[in-house]
Amino acid sequence: MPTTIFDQIEDVRSLAQIVVETVREPLLVLDDRLTILVASPSFHRAFQIDPDDTRGKQLFSLDKGGWDIQALHLLLEKSLIDKTIVEGFLVERDFPRIGHRIFLLHARKVLGTDKGRALILLGFEDITERRASEIEKAELQLRTVDLLKQKEMLLQEMQHRIVNSLQIIASILMLKARAVSSEETRQQLQDAHRRVMSVAAVQEHLHSSGRADMIEVGPYLEKLCASLAESMIGESRPATIDVTSDKSAVLSADAVSLGLIVTELVINALKYAFPDQSTHATVTVRYEVHGTDWKLSVSDNGIGKIEKAGPPAKGGLGTSLVKALAHQLDAKVETISSAAGMSVSISHATFVSRPPAA
Amino acid sequence: METAKNQTTVLIVEDEVLIRMSSAATLEDAGFDVLEAGSSAEALQVLRQHGEIAVLMTDVRLPGEMDGLDLVACVRRRHPTIRALVVSGNTSSREAGEAGAFGFLPKPYMAHSLINAVRKLIQGATPLGNAA
Question: How does pLDDT run across A227-273, given as a tens digit for each residue?
Fold first, then answer.
């Protein structure tokens, strides 16, 4: 008769004993009266129970009745009645000596050859640390959601403060313009008001686009020029402002500079380029992009720059502003004037050296 | 700027006094009669005392328990003939429409934008929340 490996092992129980002694997770082998037949060394270590206090003892009497746990009764006396395997049975309790622990119990009923006799293998999976991590993670997630909400509220509050501050500045300029008797001073204050609104338009675009940093140039310049037209163009000063732009987005700081340049040049054109109201006055604002190079131009079909006799006049505040802003943008200003009109362009070009021919 | 007398009364509700003053001055220059309030509670009191108010112009962030959108909704119920213009730096036109506003003006606004917005309301704008 052929022999198997189990035939070669004298006592099957010895094999089982070896398995129980080796297993890492706490393990109990119980009879059908729930008496502990074998407890793994890992069980003794995990629960800090002396081996002499487990062998042959009724499970529920361990630790002077400390193991008389309702959950264990439910598992071993009810759940295993009709089933042979129960996995993941949760027990959470304050255990003697080791304190509060959470275990998943895995029970398996092994039916013996004698009817009614069975063995129960009861494994303990300690998920206390894992559960604590899960709780901590859930709390962190809630805290993160809460912090994000707070951040959103703070951003909205900041947005509110910024626009209100800009409106207050604009209001002061407007009230002052209304109060002064000098028409020249009034015009200057109104121009200052328009410059403030040019900066404010960037803020509004940032908020409406939901972005914190970049501005689409085309829509920004269109809205800015529409506002300037509404403010300055009327029956006494008929004109149109046309805006064309390549698709491009710039940093909000650069958008402020571009907007201030356009405001300055458009105001100048509307004020000085068309002394004769009969011409169809047009101011054209164009923004072109080629790779990293760009060009902003404001042109009109007015009378051009009138050269006066004598030394060249010093540029006013507007000219200084445009030059300073262009410099900040690392760009150059070029003015072309003729009887057909004037064009001021601000160009940013990257110069790349070519290697000398061999 | 046109200055023909419109004989339309506008109630401005704004807690920032300088903004309220300049808005009032702008609308007066354009020929409107202007009343002012610094909060929703004050606005409701003014509305009780002045039946001639045709337009309510209100900021959204106001002191007290009732914000500008709540005020618009309240006015819509109690004074259905009054048309509301909401001004704000961080509220949307949609939210203003849901409250019952007829117009929305984002802050910061220029004088001519305010005048045009009020004129549009008087000339027969439909509520922002109504598609039809």
Answer: 888 888 876 677 899 999 999 999 988 998 999 999 999 999 998 88
Q: Where are the domains of chain A?
A: 11-126, 135-348
Are the beta carbons of A345 and A296 closer than 8 angstroms? Answer: yes
Torsion angles phi and psi, residue A295, rounded to 5? -145, 125
B31-63 residue pLDDT tens? 999 999 999 999 999 999 999 999 999 999 999
Q: Say if CB B111 and CB B85 are below 8 A apart.
A: no
Could you tell me which CATH number the domain at A11-126 has?
Answer: 3.30.450.20
The interface pTM score, or ipTM, of the predicted complex is: 0.86
Handedness of CA B64, B69, B73, B78 (dihedral sign): positive
Chain A nearest C-alpha distance from B18 (Å): 6
Instruction: Select from B21, B89, B116 the Cβ nearest to the Cβ of A159.
Output: B89
CATH code reported for the domain at B12-122: 3.40.50.2300
- Name the residue among B120, B122, B119 with its Cα closest to residue B27: B119
Flag if B22 and A204 touch (Cβ within 8 Å): no
Q: Which of the four CATH numbers 3.30.565.10, 1.10.3720.10, 2.60.40.10, 3.40.50.1820 does domain A135-348 have?
A: 3.30.565.10
| B26 vs A80 pLDDT, higher one | B26
* B109 contacts on A by Cβ (under 8 Å): 167
